[in-house]
Design goal:
Oligomer: single chain
Order of helices and strands: HHHHHH
Radius of gyration: 16 Å
Helix content: over 70%
Low-confidence stretches: none
Strand content: under 5%
Largest sheet: none
Shape: elongated
Number of helices: 6
C-alpha cells in the first residue's frame, strides 16, 4: 500500500494522510470487524482449520493470508493474528 500511496501523492500532490483517507486505505483496528472476518474465514475453510488442529503450523499462516485478503490488507496484523489464534483455540 505504501507504494500506492506514494504514487498517488506524486500524481496528485496530496499529502499521505489525504490519500489514505480518500482511498480508504486506513488500517482497521476494530476488533469486532476483524473478528467477524476471522469467523467467516474459519467457516469457509474447515480443511485448513482441521490441518491447524492436526499440527500443521503453516495452516495458520495461510488462514492469516485469507483474513488479510478478505480485509483487503487493511486488518491490523497483530490484532488479526491474536483473534485468529483465539478462535482456533475454541475449535
Amino acid at each position: 500500500q505504501a507504494k500506492d500511496v506514494f504514487a498517488l501523492m506524486l500524481k496528485t500532490g496530496k499529502t499521505a494522510e489525504t490519500v489514505i483517507a480518500e482511498e480508504h486505505m486506513a488500517q482497521v483496528a476494530d476488533t469486532g470487524a476483524i473478528e467477524a472476518i476471522v469467523r467467516d474465514i474459519l467457516a469457509e475453510h474447515p480443511q485448513a482449520v482441521e490441518d491447524y488442529m492436526n499440527g500443521k503450523s503453516n495452516a495458520l499462516g495461510w488462514l492469516m493470508g485469507q483474513v488479510m485478503k478478505k480485509s483487503k490488507g487493511r486488518a491490523n496484523p497483530s490484532i488479526a493474528t491474536e483473534l485468529l489464534k483465539r478462535e482456533l483455540g475454541k475449535c
